[in-house]
Amino acid sequence: MSSYDVIIIGSGPGGYVCAIRCAQLGLKTACVEGRETLGGTCLNVGCIPSKALLHATHMLHEAEHNFATMGLKGKSPSVDWKQMQDYKKNTIDQNTKGIEFLFKKNKVDWIKGWASIPEAGKVKVGDDVHEAKNIVIASGSDVAQLKGVEIDEETVVSSTGALALKKIPNKMVVIGAGVIGLEMGSVYRRLGAEVTVIEYLDTITPGMDGDVQKGFQKILKKQGIEFILGAAVQGVETKNGKATVSYKLNKDDSEATLDADTVLVATGRAPFTDGLGLEGLGVAMSKRGQIEVDDHWKTSVDGIYAIGDCIAGPMLAHKAEDEGMAVAEVLAGKHGHVNYGVIPGVIYTHPEVANVGLTEEQLKDDGTPYKVGKFSFMGNGRAKANFAGDGFVKILAHKETDRILGAHIIGPMAGDLIHEICVAMEFGAAAEDLALTCHAHPTYSEAVREAALACGDGAIHS
Ligand code: NAI
């Protein structure tokens, strides 16, 4: 039996970051992971592999649509699906091995296997029981089941199966117009599949700013993705490798079906806490299956903490990372903190979509006096040169104080541009602070400054 200051269960972005920070703060640390490789869903079957496929297919799109205009003539590349899968795998391997290296460098022990917690202070992996002053659960999430739909990861796939289809489908139906559905739908659309997204709500990307929902849907439609909104999927039947999706329109209860070679179920994820033995320990859980924690990520049982997708909040890798670092600080006797008001969200389509803070709809509901500064990428020289004029930057600021309350971007590198606004919000900046900051020309970032200027006396290039 070995003994540690902290044992972290799960090595996704929450768990591995927490482990490294704990070790850096002088705590004897181990991390338990049952997969063959470190990195959790994000690195193995989530964020990283999907970004590889998004990048490769975006390059294909550029070659097919924009190369000739730039004077780059010749045949467009053909798709070698196996090679693209190899490239994806190689990207995953580099990242998972990178974490293994960081564990060694920081002296974090990797305990291989699936963990359970027989009692506070003990973690069981296989036949071994390890002692830990504190335990951090970072066990992540799993695909949420949809009634009437059985995922076989061949014809009816989750995001995991969608990353490794045997061949590119002719017809794909995506259930759910959230982040996963739109990212993976984009990948297969660019690879030539007919893609139809069925969404229960009347808008895509639930919870996002209304302008983004409308603008983004228009752009995706232009790219050839079809949408059936306000429709609840009732079930999927499969026969000989083909699927039939049945759905009901909310407005009149009429029923219809759609055939597909592949159906992607992207209707959300649920906390994954199976096998940990939390019930026996008396760890309080919410009705939605999330582990309940206090302001310091402590569960209802002393010495047991939880972070990431298995607790409340957005299921985002970077939210889990921040919690991982903060809980490490708490365990080392410092003051860990996460500002949940400034957590960016990004959809890695092309163009990208990014947001932080409040939406216009939330401000309206709150009755907060606000103003809007909006700037289209059509007015940005760099974007025009790069065929990236679709989209806009929208900044929401307090009407009286000018303090930035939220920002919503559709456009090139939106996922990177958003961080300028995150930093501004962390410092409690006003839109004018951004507007008065010199931005290099020609950059996409100028669109952010122009939106900030539009909160005041007006943008220059619109
Ligand atoms: P999601 O919660 O973002 O979207 C699911 C959608 O499915 C919703 O719009 C919902 O209304 C719809 N839906 C549910 N049941 C339905 C039915 N029966 N018929 C039709 N539509 C139905 O879930 P998603 O996309 O699966 O993502 C899961 C989690 O993973 C999210 O929390 C997301 O933030 C996270 N994620 C984040 C990424 C990123 O940051 N780029 C990438 C991938 C996942």
From TrEMBL:
<keyword id="KW-0676">Redox-active center</keyword>
<feature type="disulfide bond" description="Redox-active">
    <location>
        <begin position="42"/>
        <end position="47"/>
    </location>
</feature>
<keyword id="KW-0520">NAD</keyword>
<keyword id="KW-0547">Nucleotide-binding</keyword>
<comment type="similarity">
    <text>Belongs to the class-I pyridine nucleotide-disulfide oxidoreductase family.</text>
</comment>
<dbReference type="InterPro" id="IPR023753">
    <property type="entry name" value="FAD/NAD-binding_dom"/>
</dbReference>
<keyword id="KW-0274">FAD</keyword>
<dbReference type="Pfam" id="PF07992">
    <property type="entry name" value="Pyr_redox_2"/>
</dbReference>
<keyword id="KW-1015">Disulfide bond</keyword>
<dbReference type="InterPro" id="IPR036188">
    <property type="entry name" value="FAD/NAD-bd_sf"/>
</dbReference>
<dbReference type="InterPro" id="IPR050151">
    <property type="entry name" value="Class-I_Pyr_Nuc-Dis_Oxidored"/>
</dbReference>
<feature type="binding site">
    <location>
        <begin position="176"/>
        <end position="183"/>
    </location>
    <ligand>
        <name>NAD(+)</name>
    </ligand>
</feature>
<feature type="binding site">
    <location>
        <position position="268"/>
    </location>
    <ligand>
        <name>NAD(+)</name>
    </ligand>
</feature>
<feature type="active site" description="Proton acceptor">
    <location>
        <position position="441"/>
    </location>
</feature>
<dbReference type="GO" id="GO:0004148">
    <property type="term" value="F:dihydrolipoyl dehydrogenase (NADH) activity"/>
</dbReference>
<keyword id="KW-0285">Flavoprotein</keyword>
<feature type="binding site">
    <location>
        <begin position="315"/>
        <end position="318"/>
    </location>
    <ligand>
        <name>FAD</name>
    </ligand>
</feature>
<dbReference type="GO" id="GO:0050660">
    <property type="term" value="F:flavin adenine dinucleotide binding"/>
</dbReference>
<feature type="domain" description="FAD/NAD(P)-binding">
    <location>
        <begin position="4"/>
        <end position="324"/>
    </location>
</feature>
<dbReference type="Pfam" id="PF02852">
    <property type="entry name" value="Pyr_redox_dim"/>
</dbReference>
<dbReference type="InterPro" id="IPR006258">
    <property type="entry name" value="Lipoamide_DH"/>
</dbReference>
<feature type="binding site">
    <location>
        <position position="51"/>
    </location>
    <ligand>
        <name>FAD</name>
    </ligand>
</feature>
<dbReference type="InterPro" id="IPR016156">
    <property type="entry name" value="FAD/NAD-linked_Rdtase_dimer_sf"/>
</dbReference>
<dbReference type="InterPro" id="IPR001100">
    <property type="entry name" value="Pyr_nuc-diS_OxRdtase"/>
</dbReference>
<protein>
    <recommendedName>
        <fullName>Dihydrolipoyl dehydrogenase</fullName>
        <ecNumber>1.8.1.4</ecNumber>
    </recommendedName>
</protein>
<feature type="domain" description="Pyridine nucleotide-disulphide oxidoreductase dimerisation">
    <location>
        <begin position="343"/>
        <end position="452"/>
    </location>
</feature>
<dbReference type="GO" id="GO:0006103">
    <property type="term" value="P:2-oxoglutarate metabolic process"/>
</dbReference>
<feature type="binding site">
    <location>
        <position position="199"/>
    </location>
    <ligand>
        <name>NAD(+)</name>
    </ligand>
</feature>
<dbReference type="InterPro" id="IPR012999">
    <property type="entry name" value="Pyr_OxRdtase_I_AS"/>
</dbReference>
<feature type="binding site">
    <location>
        <position position="309"/>
    </location>
    <ligand>
        <name>FAD</name>
    </ligand>
</feature>
<dbReference type="InterPro" id="IPR004099">
    <property type="entry name" value="Pyr_nucl-diS_OxRdtase_dimer"/>
</dbReference>
<dbReference type="GO" id="GO:0005737">
    <property type="term" value="C:cytoplasm"/>
</dbReference>
<keyword id="KW-0560">Oxidoreductase</keyword>
